[in-house]
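Handoff note, outgoing to incoming analyst
You'll be picking up this chain. Sequence as last confirmed:
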Amino acid sequence: MGLPYKVIPVNIGKGEQMAPAFLAISPNNKIPAIVDPDGPGGKPVSIFESGAILLYLGEKTGKFLPKPLAERIPVYEWLMWQMGGFGPMPGQVHHFIALENEQDRAYGLKRYMAETRRLYGVLDRRLDGRDFVAGELSVADFAILGWAWRHPRHKVELSDFPNVKRWYETLMAR
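Most recent structure output, in case you need it:
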């Protein structure tokens, strides 16, 4: 895209993704994340999650994101396909293939259930003091609700996440 940049490594092996300074940029404590010192209105902006970063940079530069809506549709579809499937699933293969001996179903359930609870916690912190995840009701809320409504199947008690519970009840009442 021809933009100047500086790479700042985050050593996840040492837990640097949990540092308050990094969490201020990426509340999900995951990489990648960027800070654009020349964001909207000339003010710095931080962006986390690969899809959001790519859409932001495409909008900002006018590159790699077609202007006509009809041409953007397949870009959106395939970006979401990657984010929702072809990323998370191969990533789990990377994790499990690195194990030296066979693990049983309990290990996988423990890993995925812990990550699910962690994500509910991220959502709960985001909703603290907010009615909706992005400020106003948006497609992001609807996308998240599509999974949160299955919290009983996730073995997650919403009472453990009071902000999520309030948000969930508000959306379900709609």
